[in-house]
Amino acid sequence: MMNNIPKIKIGIVAVSRDCFPESLSVGRRKALVEAYAKKYDAEDIYECPVCIVESEIHMVQALEDVKKAGCNALCVYLGNFGPEISETLLAKHFEGPKMFIAAAEESQHDLSDGRGDAYCGMLNASYNLKLRNVKAYIPEYPVGTAAECADMIHEFLPIARAVDGLQNLKIFSFGPRPLNFLACNAPIKQLYNLGVEIEENSELDLFEAYHKHDNDPRIPEVVEDMAKELGTGNQKPEVLPKLAQYELTLLDWIEDHKGYRKYFAIAGKCWPAFQTQFGFVPCYVNSRLTGRGIPVSCEVDIYGALSEFIGTCVSDDIVTLLDINNSVPDDMYEEAIAGKFDYTHTDTFMGFHCGNTCSKKLAFCSMKNQKIMARSLPVEVTNGTLEGDIAPGPITFYRLQSTADNILRGYMAQGEVLPVATQSFGGIGVFAIHEMGRFYRHVLIEKNYPHHGAVMFGHYAKALFEVYKYIGVDVEEIGYAQPKGVRYPTENPFA
User: Fold this and answer.
1) Between β-strands 319-326 and 408-417, what pairing exists: parallel, antiparallel or unpaired?
2) Pairing between strand 98-103 and 393-402?
3) Is the CB of residue 350 less than 8 Å from the CB of residue 431?
4) Alpha carbons 171 and 4: distance in angstroms, whole number
5) Is residue 117 classed as helix, strand or coil in its secondary structure?
6) pLDDT tens-digit profile of 288-345?
7) Measured distance CA(426)–CA(387) in Å, rounded
8) How far is the C-alpha of 370 from the C-alpha of 383, rounded, in Å?
């Protein structure tokens, strides 16, 4: 479990229209809570006992109760038709993420006094939410039995974590983008629209803070922890004290600058002057912090850091940020993939970065110097990158981005890292996504996404899609890998 993301507690508030039996909502709420506790962690939810909301006064009572109980997310449960005014006011005045679900009818033998008509009530609820400009998550099919509604609430957890996390996030950036990295352009207006704070700092600020940690008494302890993590992969032990000093610098910076914010991410600078002035590359430190749930992006990629944080919240797991880097050579495809896996050649590519992927997500690793940087710099200042093949398994490749036109866009595609030796350097893996070639051309290129993509280690696109919608990404701006036979709008029908 990650430390730098919210712990969600969902307050379940049942509502009832006054011309329906209140007992319907009471009984159905209790059944819902019992169903959730049987299948999931009962600490995820709180059953609001003070009232069934029928009026505005009840709405205020319920709102005060769930706040007092420490709930940071809300589930409005239509046990019957529901009062469209009071229930949507409840959502309006609750500050955290919220969802609406409705009770299905139980039996053909009780369709008189036992009929709740919540199927109908959900329509009025959605209409009133729109009237009040209130955002709320409504599942794909929001009407269900107690057990089905329990599943809906559980599926809301990662969505709520991401939404609540963004409302309490601060991103720290250091320095401008490196030369020729216009792709990491980051208009910050959309960050503020999302509720995210950003603190932009210079590399000189970071350099000064680093040297204030010279001879920090905590350095030996961090060095020991690094050496333990690396094991036989510790190929440059002489650089560990510098890396430990840098790690302490970043952690202290967060503590000293976090202000009122609860969660953090860093968009860091790593070249070209970083190596000659600091005497190392920061990749390994970046990987360690990301492993604790504090994402650190490379090349001052602010929206990359934002994307990583969203993925950490959604997956409750370590993420990484990679270049969508190079094609798989013909001979590698023929030897290691063709006939063994159900992917065409253009379904495959290699995701790479110098060494920012956490050791827990690598099949093997070693800490050494960075090959690309060493081509133009003294080798001794390029130590500190974590290299190894990324562990095989399911992945979600994704990114949230605002570009020069200040439009918020996002993409996602599910696939896997194949168990194929990369025979290359850096933190790298052979990725496979069905119809990747078309997705690459008609989403990534067509929509002007940069070369960095974030990776969740598992299939989480369903929840991520709902996060994008909730935070205000227009559905027309959400790109995903179209299956074979479904044409992209920009795809040549005669190709």
Assistant:
1) unpaired
2) unpaired
3) yes
4) 13
5) coil
6) 999 999 999 988 899 999 999 999 999 999 999 999 999 999 999 999 999 999 999 9
7) 4
8) 6
418 with 337: CB under 8 angstroms? yes
DSSP string, 180-246: T-GGG---SHHHHHHT-EEEEE-HHHHHHHHHTTTT-TTHHHHHHHHHHHHGGGB--GGGHHHHHHH
pTM given for the model: 0.95
What percentage of the chain reaches a pLDDT higher than 90? 82
DSSP summary character for residue 43: G
From residue 182, how far is each of 167, 328, 450 by CA, in Å? 27, 26, 9
Q: What angle do CA 301, 304, 305 make, to 5 degrees?
A: 90
Give φ, ψ of 414 to 5 degrees.
Answer: -100, 145
Tokens of 227: 């050496």
Please return the burial class of 387, using the count of CB atoms within 10 Å of its CB with bins 0-12, 13-18 and 19+: buried
CB 67 within 8 A of CB 80: no
Q: How many residues does the chain have?
A: 495
Tell me: pLDDT of 178 over 90.
Answer: no
Spatial separation of the C-alpha atoms in residues 387 and 358, rounded to whole Å? 10
Residue carrying structure tokens 């967060």: 254
Please confirm whether the linkage preceding 272 is cis (ω < 30° from 0): yes
